[in-house]
Amino acid sequence: MRLRSIIWSAHCCQYRLAGVDKDDATRARIKELQDQATLTSLSFGRNVQEGGNTVTVENAAELEGWPADFLEAHQPGEDGTITLTTDFPDYLPVLTFARSSDLRRRMFLAYNTRAYPANRQLLLDLLRIRQEIATILGFAHWADLATADQMMESAANMQAFLDDLDHASKGGAQKEYAMILEFAQSRELGLSQIDAASRAVLGGAVPAVWRLTSIRRRCGRIFRIRASSRACWRPRRSCFQVNFRRIENPDVWHPSVERVGSLGWDGARPGVFISTCIRARARTNGFRRIR
Q1: Within 10 A of 45 (CB to CB), how many other CB atoms are there?
Q2: What is the C-alpha separation between 107 and 200, in angstroms, rounded?
Q3: Residue 57: CB atoms within 10 Å
Q4: pTM higher than 0.85 for the full model?
Q5: CA 181/CA 38 separation, integer angstroms
Q6: Is the pLDDT of residue 106 over 80?
């Protein structure tokens, strides 16, 4: 009965969102507004797709950090400048590899101002249309309407969830930001903060080895190699009904590598396994790209 009630409530919610309980004139108005919203959204997206911007590189110092194939594909024009577009094949490499913070900022602004100011009025129109639809259907605003048939059920629940998420993650995020900023300041003197334009190059590739080293160090303190090895074999012992015994004085290529023999309940040895416990060194390739 509970499942039937849930299904019934979901169907009723869908009917309500479609305006089935309204009179003919109101339903006609809702359809008209929905058609307007669809056309406005399509126009907005088309303008973004077709309204790309360009960024001009005049200073050769701004080429530092670019991958070799990217440089080869962007040769200077007759005036000695390089023109970049806001299409992803240009946008992502610049924000990911460019050492020049000014170039990253210009590219970031160019990308995020596509179709402006053409789309400004379209966005305002879309907000107005959605608010009118929400009001007709009995909702305070569009956010409540959009979440009515979702697990969150309301904009208030969504906001509460985001607040809880922010509270739970903010402390760790602030610590990681401080760590990344400290490292970035050692590479870019005078850097006071990591802005949105530098997030990819400083927040992604740069601290990768820091995270790896930190995790490796912490795990080394928490887990003991041999104890971890035994913990790996224990569930297999009960699952496959075999015993595992470490082979003494194994002929292996590293002291931390062990050989483990599997023994059936009848004493037979079905096989031998190699357990590798070598601690991997942190790679530094991510740093070399942007030094």
Answers
A1: 13
A2: 13
A3: 22
A4: no
A5: 43
A6: yes
